[in-house]
Amino acid sequence: MQRIGILTGGGDCPGLNPVLRAVVKRSAVEGWQVLGFRNGWKGVIDDEFIILDHQSVSGILPKGGTILGTSRTNPYKKPGDLEKVKSNIAKHELKALITVGGEDTLGAANKLAQEGLKIVGVPKTIDNDLNATDYTFGYDTALNIAMECIDRLHTTAESHNRVMVVEIMGRHAGWIALEAGLAGGADVILIPEVEIDLDKVCELIKKRHARGRTFSIVAVAEGAKLKDKEVTMDQKLDAFGHIRLGGIGQTISEMIEQKTGYETRVTVLGHIQRGGSPTAFDRILGTRFGVQAIELVKQERYGFMVSLQGRNIVAVPLQEAVGSLKTVPLDYYQMAQVFFG
Ligand code: F6P
Question: What is the pLDDT of residue 232?
Fold first, then answer.
């Protein structure tokens, strides 16, 4: 029996389980067995896996997270790990390894593919910042959660005549903050792509209050930056060199209160945005990606990644997806500014 491997790496996101289910069901049509490696690249290094069959993927479609577990393990970081990855793939005689991940996981996948390993990529991230695909699954779910939170913040903000700052995920790209802010009617949106001008923010809020409104909502992406001041949770780096973000909401909320005199509160949405059941969009996108990943294995198109372009699922070289991020275009942010203040 032919065998393929699959792993889910990086931050979890709603839609991973639909991918696993689709990969197992489509592989069954070919008569292939699926080895699910535990906790991202860590499972391939440590040779920790489970056999995924019809029973193991039964009922997982609406479930958030990943039944395989995940980690931010980088196989290129620790001496000896890369050799373990290669020898374990060889030991199981894998026809291919499907790697489901974002920029970091797929970056490692791309390097391995360039070394001749039979790798197929599936893009995922709630941040929607991967190049070469219109959308990643997980994003739509996170966006809807963030929008609903902004809706909820409106009523309490209005009742108390407060400024509410809401910190939204997005390390390098402000997609969730921008689109949840637009959909939820935030009065100011701050994203990593555009440096924060705090005086301008306070001016917008004051202008709005001068018009008779007594509350405001400020949506800020966790990666948004103040001039000359990087706000981080601590100085620790993960295996891919990323610092832990967080704290920008609190920082600007104190500054806004001080500069405007309006009572201000902060809400950090954090991992609420990554948890729970995927939306229909994310379930379907994950399902279509999983099926297409097996088509690519069948066609032996290794070093490729499945991607959504328009309404179509296509294949793009992994190389096109990694290396740089898909950030929010300036003209889109400028359009959103129509609704500020
Ligand atoms: O990459 C997705 C993401 O959710 C980012 O938006 C966020 O900065 C990061 O993961 C948080 O990671 P962790 O799960 O390690 O706290």
Answer: 79
Structure tokens at 285: 């996108």
Which residues, 6 or more positions from 90, have their beta carbon under 8 angstroms from its beta carbon?
A: none
28: containing domain: 3-137+278-322
pLDDT for 246: 73
Q: Which residues are part of the catalytic machinery?
A: 127
Do 187 and 298 share a domain, yes or no?
Answer: no
| Spacing, Cα 11 to ligand 1 middle (Å) | 6
- Number of folded domains in the chain? 2
pLDDT band per the 50, 70, 90 thresholds, residue 337: very high
Does ligand 1 come within 6 angstroms of the Cβ of 125? yes
CB distance 170 to ligand 1 below 6 Å: yes
The Cα 178–Cα 332 span in angstroms is: 9
In angstroms, the CA 37 to CA 50 distance is 7
In the reported structure, the alpha carbon of residue 89 is separated from the centroid of ligand 1 by a whole-number distance in angstroms of 28
Ligand 1 atom closest to Cα of residue 169: 6
104 lines ligand 1 (CB under 6 A): no
Task: Dump pLDDT digits (tens) for 214-240.
Answer: 999 999 999 999 987 777 777 778 888
- CATH code, domain with 167: 3.40.50.460
Pair 110, 151 in one domain: no
For residue range 288-331, list pLDDT tens digits in order.
Answer: 999 999 999 999 999 999 999 999 999 999 999 998 999 999 99
Pair 119, 176 in one domain: no
Q: How far from the centroid of its chain's Cα atoms is residue 15's Cα?
A: 11
**The predicted structure's pLDDT at residue 136:** 98
Does the beta carbon of 42 lie inside 6 Å of ligand 1?
no
Q: Is residue 61 part of a domain?
A: yes
274/147 Cα distance (integer angstroms): 13
